[in-house]
Amino acid sequence: MSLEKITTTNIWMRLVNTEYDNLNSKELELKFKSIYLEETGELYEGDISIYHSSESEVTSKLNSGYDGTALLLSNNNEEKLYVINQGTTNLADWKENIKGPFAGKSEKQAEATRTFVDDTKRNFGVGDGVETISLGHSLGHHNSSMTGISDDTFDEIYGVNGLQISPVEAYNYDFNFYDAVNVHFGLRGKNDIYEIPTNELAEFTKEFYADAPVKIHQYISEDDPLYAVTEKAGFVTFGDVTKVDTKLETDGIKELVDDIPDDVIASFRDLAIDYADADNKGGVNEVVYQLLGVQMEYLEGIEGKADLLKWYAMHNDEVDETMRALKDNLPPLADKIRLISQNADTIFGRLYEAGYIDEEQKKVMIEEIGNLDEGLTKILGLINANVGVNEESWSVALGGDIATFLIGKEIAGSLTESIQNILDSGTLDSLKGIKDSHSINELLNAMTKGKKSYIGKDLIYTANAGGGEAIKVNMTAALKMYRKGAMLLDEKRTAIVRLEERLNEEIAISYREEKYKVLDGINHIEASPKSFAYERGWMHRYPLYEVESLVVDEHIEPLRNADMDEEVRELYKNVESGHMMLEDYRKAIEELFRKEEEVAQMFDLVRGF
Amino acid sequence: MKFTDTEIVQVIPEEDHSYKGRRLRQSIEEIQDKDDEFYSLINNVIVGEDQKGKIMDQMSTVAFMRKLNEQKLYMSLALKTIKVVGNYSERVEDNKRQKVVLTYNQSAKVN
Questions:
Q1: Are residues A266 and A222 part of one domain?
Q2: What values do phi and psi take at A210, rounded to 5?
């Protein structure tokens, strides 16, 4: 067994995926061994030490939000330090992935990465000479690369769908690069860097770090939205890159993005994120609330002027809140919608050509985005003409009831109708697939052939049951059940032994002890019978007579009907039948995959850890 | 002239043995806890991991039948615990009460 296997694609990618579960050291060790067994068919027999960034005081003090786990693996005189840098996966984080490097957030995380690696070496008592390998996804890979190319923190970096290096961030992070950029481009102030054409800065960055000793290996999905914007954002890619088409049915998203103007992409991305977040929470009302900050519940039931007057008179706070929200949120939203509306044919045309949406969805989107643009413009006009917000008194002055009514009617009517039509078209669900391409799983599945595939964090084997029916078996879960199930049955057996011991102690042994206590008491009485008779007042109970002798008519019954032998036997039988059930399960799976020898081997070995 | 008389004597004081029932129940609960973990593991795999197909259907049925039988067994263990501790307590307390035979003889003072 060699540590080389740790960096085989399926092992390191699954390890990185597992890091998102924030397992404790014991759970992570178990998961590591499971992944190793599932992917190699062998037992990992080396030593493992685990250190998490939350345990590292110096790293935590940086308050960077960095999350990482270090594994020191040693086997047969070979020792390597693997650092898994956690990335980000949800939509809001994805947005941050793009904005972060410009905002300086990732700079802090790169610093935290370096600090954590140094602290890990101190904690494990290993010198700087230990081979240090980084494994990361998304922002995690970005942090590794940033510190890897500028500080030599890592000897080797493995990244999946990684966020690439931002020259602006490198400029703020690496003093040598800062000086070199200033000299090369003749910069006078820090902000001058933004004046350099993106491609020139990217080219210079590439050349500057060309000799960095770190070896970087990257796997990137051609459908990953992060990859799509890498070039447009002026990021620089280092190392050897394996590009994988993870969605064969659609064109790569990069080609699509390249065709659409940058500002439209940015608007569309922001809106899509808001829509998706709101849609997850629930329906049209939530979408309107996310976009405009307007509580649709307030407007329900307003159908005529009388309702409006009632709302205005009785719920002035709601009117105030609604108008204030509209005044703040409407202008930027209207700008974004207008930009998208002006480019709707290109955007939805390309999405349709690339296979992300169908023709009907394209039609609905173009039409409804146009309607939204029109509706928002109308509301914006009414608000600008009629609503004045007095900041000092925090009150909203309305130019007229009619204006309020029209605003309310427009929101409750045409806007919600358009949003409803968009939601009903399923376009947003279709587009959600775009973010899946940033996941490790989609890439793992695209690279894995044959019967194996991955769902969540688990390895799946697929068998053909005949008649074209495919049977999927979650091998990770099956092995876990086989191993842990047997462990629990053994623990149950131990608990039954404890019950037997307790029964013996509390009933059988205790009965014997009680018997001896009684015999002792009898002996005590018989040893001085007259004293006992005196004590009890029996000595002279009868006039002219006294007790001559006293004998205890000793009568001790054996203990009967005080065992649970039958029940205990039954409990043991259940343990055995439990093991048989697990074995039957194993046999059924082995039978299903009889050609795959590694399946039987995995079951053989899984109980070894 | 002699005669005998009998008395029932409490050789050692009475005691409450109900704590033994609690201790035995605790041991049985430990066994039950392991079963609960076992079924929760199986249930997680069957339901949680979204496993389908004949193998899992069979596993699910076998697990359900086992669980039913085990519930019956635990019920009978609970009743048996009461019976065992009751019998033990009754027997132990009976043993503590012994019959004493007293032989009386005419007092010397009479002569």
A1: no
A2: -60, -35
Min CA distance, A279 vs chain B (Å)?
25
Q: Is A212 found in the same domain as A177? A: yes
Tokens of A237: 């890619």
Residues in a beta bridge with A137: A160
Q: Which tokens sit at A231? A: 């070039």
* Residue A84, helix vs strand vs coil: strand
A462 belongs to a structural domain: no
b/e A110-119 (16+ beta carbons within 10 angstroms → b): bbbbbbbbbb
Domain that holds residue A568: 475-606
Residue A2 belongs to a domain:
no
Residue B4, strand partner residues: B103
The ipTM (two decimal places) reads 0.92
Taking residue B82's Cβ as centre, other Cβ atoms within 10 Å add up to 13
How many Cβ atoms are within 10 Å of A385's Cβ, its own excluded? 10
Q: Does residue A492 share a domain with residue A348?
A: no
Mean pLDDT of A116-142: 93
Question: Do residues A354 and A250 touch, judged by C-beta distance below 8 A?
Answer: yes
A351-369 pLDDT, tens digit each: 787 777 888 888 888 888 8
Which residue from A471, A517, A548 is facing B2, i.e. has the nearest CB?
A548
Cross-chain Cβ contact A498/B30 below 8 Å: yes
Q: Which of B71, B44, B96, B53 is nearest to A519 (CA)?
A: B96
Do residue A287 and residue A204 come from a single domain?
no
| A546/B105 Cβ within 8 A | yes
How high is the pLDDT of residue A513? 96
